[in-house]
Specification:
The chain is an alpha/beta fold. Helix content is 45%, strand content 13%. The two termini are 33 Å apart.
């Protein structure tokens, strides 16, 4: 009876389980940790959305069980958003499901479509649920390059030719968490054409569709003609409207996949609390100036991060989208790997980042930095980092630091 449960055996410890205790111990000792690790937005939800929640919750009828698929008004609002933003027409009754965030949507879709041993193609590095949703469902994950380049298509063709059984689905995530890669419509056209030829479903994570920093908004894969035949896309209100704790997201697209997801969800939940869904309608149908303001905040923080960390001696590549920077571990610390380097940053610089290995083994020479602290705190992190870099000096000093800290 001491043997670990089958599905738990397939799950490694969540990367933050290694980092959080170290942060907690430092804070208990009075250290001011600047936390750029978890992608937890710090911006307040816009007031008109909160006001609608307060109004709706006053009605006792909204305290009852809700609708697992999402209330009709919410599904219509999401369909209207896709029409405005992407020029994509959706049937809110058959092609839209509201989810408890995109993370829950992915996990339940994996349960809906995966048989034991099914092969799923997943980018590496990527957001963990993209892999582990299918692993928990008994599937087998085959790694794909995360960057939308020629190498992606070469790897896709190899995977289809050499996987037994043939892959059932391909996961895409652009703009990407954690790498911030962005794909264009030409890339999506090629992916759709290939997957249609080989009868492979596409599950696209578009959670960061509205957090971009140039003049070209990221497209939806559903803009490609006939993509709806094989594709479903997941979106989230967490970042767009600063609503992470509200747990509101969507799956839209292919009717067969949406029906499968809805059927699984009908056994597992009664949907989000109705007032939250009503407030989400107000967000989707309301003014979008609040979305532009959120985008500008992240753009400014990105620029401050690049400038201040660069002066501290750590070059940060400029992300074109998302609320993250995907940053190589500095050369002098590269031998440590991302997890040990992240631990060292907490103990020696009072700065927390997310180890890249938590997003897949191919991320181990990177860390993810989240833009979840204000400009002053980012600059303070850079000052701490500069002192740390000066103290570290040589690799021998780094080893001494680790030994002194017990890392």
């Amino acid at each position: 009876m001491d043997q670990e449960f089958h599905r738990i055996r397939r799950l490694p410890p969540y990367v933050f389980e290694h980092i959080n205790p170290i942060k907690a111990r430092a804070r208990a000792q009075g250290v001011d940790i600047i936390d750029l690790g978890m992608g937890n937005p710090d911006l307040p939800t816009p007031s008109h959305i909160v006001d609608k929640l307060v109004e709706a919750v006053q009605n006792p009828r909204t305290h009852r069980y809700s609708a697992s698929r999402g209330i009709p008004g919410l599904r219509r609002a999401q369909a209207a958003y896709y029409a405005r933003r992407f020029g994509v027409k959706l049937d809110p009754d058959t092609q839209v499901v509201a989810t408890l965030g995109s993370k829950e949507g992915f996990a339940n879709m994996a349960q809906a479509i995966t048989a034991p041993g099914d092969v799923v193609l997943v980018p590496n590095p990527t957001y963990p649920i993209h892999s582990f949703g299918f692993i928990m469902s008994g599937g087998v994950v085959r790694a794909m390059p995360a960057e939308p380049s020629d190498a992606f298509f070469q790897a896709l063709d190899r995977a289809v030719r050499h996987s037994i059984p043939k892959p059932i689905a391909l996961i895409l995530n652009y703009p990407s968490n954690p790498t911030a890669y962005v794909a264009d419509l030409d890339f999506y056209r090629q992916v759709v054409a290939y997957c249609k030829r080989h009868d492979i479903f596409i599950l696209s994570d578009l959670a960061y569709s509205e957090i971009y920093f140039d003049d070209n908004p990221p497209p939806s894969i559903l803009e490609v003609p006939n993509a709806m035949d094989i594709a479903v896309e997941f979106t989230s209100m967490s970042k767009t409207f600063s609503m992470p704790g509200w747990r509101m997201g969507f799956a839209v697209g292919n009717e067969r996949l949406i029906a499968a997801l809805a059927r699984v969800k009908s056994y597992l939940d009664y949907g989000a609390f109705t007032p939250i869904q009503v407030a989400a309608v107000a967000a989707l149908n309301g003014p979008d100036d609040c979305v532009s303001e959120v985008r500008q905040v992240y753009r400014t923080r990105r620029d401050v991060l690049i400038e201040s960390f660069g002066r501290a001696g750590w070059k940060v590549p400029s992300p074109p989208a998302t609320m993250f920077a995907w940053v190589p571990v500095p050369d002098r610390f590269a031998h440590m790997g991302s997890l040990e380097f992240s631990k060292l940053l907490i103990s020696e610089a009072a700065v927390a980042v997310a180890p890249g290995v938590g997003f897949g083994e191919y991320g181990d020479q990177y860390v993810r930095i989240a833009l979840v602290e204000n400009e002053q705190r980012i600059r303070q992190a850079a000052r701490n980092l500069k002192k740390f870099m000066a103290r570290a000096g040589s690799g021998d000093n780094v080893v001494a630091m680790k030994q002194a800290d017990g890392a």
